[in-house]
């Protein structure tokens, strides 16, 4: 039985993150179901120039991801399709990642608004106690943003801010290395193996431990 990860892309800045997450999941042989909110079409257009049209999703998503989807186990559900498979707990999804997660998506999922398929699928994933990862992208944040994130945490989600670390790649890290750091943390949360970043090995500065004192 096909058991995909649902990837929900909402309308926060940060479209390179889902691009990296989807690519790494497909590289790992995982099945992926993609849901792109209406607002995310605007961020995609703004940040990449890519339009995603429901009727031409395969060509459009292939262009966005920069890969041939010929053999990829990738399905696409229009965000307005509330009768789609992922809107039901009986759909055999492994779990879901909302990346990036807008403050609106965080609020909607936290209060069970289900205003579109992305929010409904996330709510279903939480109620079924399946792995749910929420990657918020906003700064600074209000009290209400924080309260919604606490509600999501309490409902069982992993709240994983789009907050790249510079260890591993150093202060001269490229944008792609910082993107891959966040994507790698998402795959860690899903327990899917990846090689998106160099893991911390307890060695400062690439292997040189500083003594406590001395010249
Ligand atoms: C170019 C652009 C960038 C945006 N960036 C963010 C952002 O970083 N974080 C956020 O929470 N909302 C951001 N928004 C606002 C959301 O798109 C808006 O709240 C929208 O209603 C979210 O809807 P959705 O959660 O259904 O995708 C941005 C909007 C645009 C047009």
From TrEMBL:
One Pfam family linked to the record: Flavoprotein
MF annotations from Gene Ontology: prenyltransferase activity
Alphabetical UniProt keywords: Flavoprotein, FMN, Prenyltransferase, Transferase
The keyword Flavoprotein is assigned to this record: yes
All residue ranges annotated as the Flavoprotein domain in the record: 5-190
Top-rank lineage group of the source organism: Bacteria
Gene3D superfamilies, sorted: Flavin prenyltransferase-like
NCBIfam families, per database record: ubiX_pad (TIGR00421)
Name this protein carries in UniProt: 4-hydroxy-3-polyprenylbenzoate decarboxylase
Organism: Pseudosporangium ferrugineum
